[in-house]
Write a structure and sequence with these properties.
The protein is built from eight helices and three strands, in the order αααααβββααα. The chain is mostly helical. The radius of gyration is 16 Å and the shape is globular. Bound molecules: manganese (III) ion.
């Protein structure tokens, strides 16, 4: 069965003014959708048709001859995850186990934000910044292009898309303003806590 574009977990204008409906029209409706359409075309009739997204990512990671399938499958997975990393009225601070684990790993929430921001701003060109569980430890990482922690035995808790298409409509070239807005007004700590509970 072919993959379908998952619906956003909120209305397309629900994150405004921090992320506009116009950004959602392009980022979800066009960019994310194009990865879904291209993935289905590449899988059509092949060995990997009918497998889950996670299975396809695992089966193609690091295989240069399958780069097209990997890139589109990983981007479908990353974007689906990213939409849940934000919510209307987001921001603030985590609580409970997640807050304790962030304090233990980074020293404080502010230091985590500093490290996450640094990763997001130093990812040269397109890619992603992440909070992951890696071998039992919380870590901040960054990945280029479509690359994803699920291809590296890491469990993602949170991410930000730092491809220019994620912020150019709302912030033009100002990636720092986008990252600040994400952490201040959009981040969905409840989703990160759910991912930690399952890790
Ligand atoms: Mn994107």
């Amino acid at each position: 069965m072919a993959f379908e574009l998952p619906a956003l977990p909120y209305a397309k204008d629900a994150l405004a003014p921090h992320m506009s409906a116009e950004t959602m029209d392009y980022h979800h409706g066009k960019h994310h959708n194009t990865y879904v359409v291209n993935l289905n075309k590449l899988l059509d009739g092949g060995d990997l048709a009918g497998r889950t997204l996670e299975e396809i990512v695992a089966a193609t990671a690091g295989d240069a001859s399958k780069a097209g399938v990997f890139n589109n499958a990983a981007q479908v997975w990353n974007h689906t995850f990213f939409w849940h990393c934000m919510k209307p009225g987001g921001g603030g601070a985590p609580s409970g186990d997640l807050a304790a684990r962030i304090d233990a790993a980074f020293g404080s929430l502010d230091k985590f934000k500093e490290d996450f921001t640094q990763a997001a701003l130093t990812q040269f060109g397109s890619g992603w910044a992440w909070l992951v569980v890696d071998g039992g430890d919380l870590k901040v990482t960054k990945t280029p292009n479509a690359d994803t922690p699920i291809a590296h035995r890491q469990t993602p808790l949170l991410c930000i898309d730092v491809w220019e298409h994620a912020y150019y409509v709302d912030h033009r070239n100002a990636r720092p303003k986008f990252v600040e807005t994400f952490l201040g007004h959009l981040v969905n700590w409840d989703f990160a806590a759910e991912n930690l509970a399952k890790a």
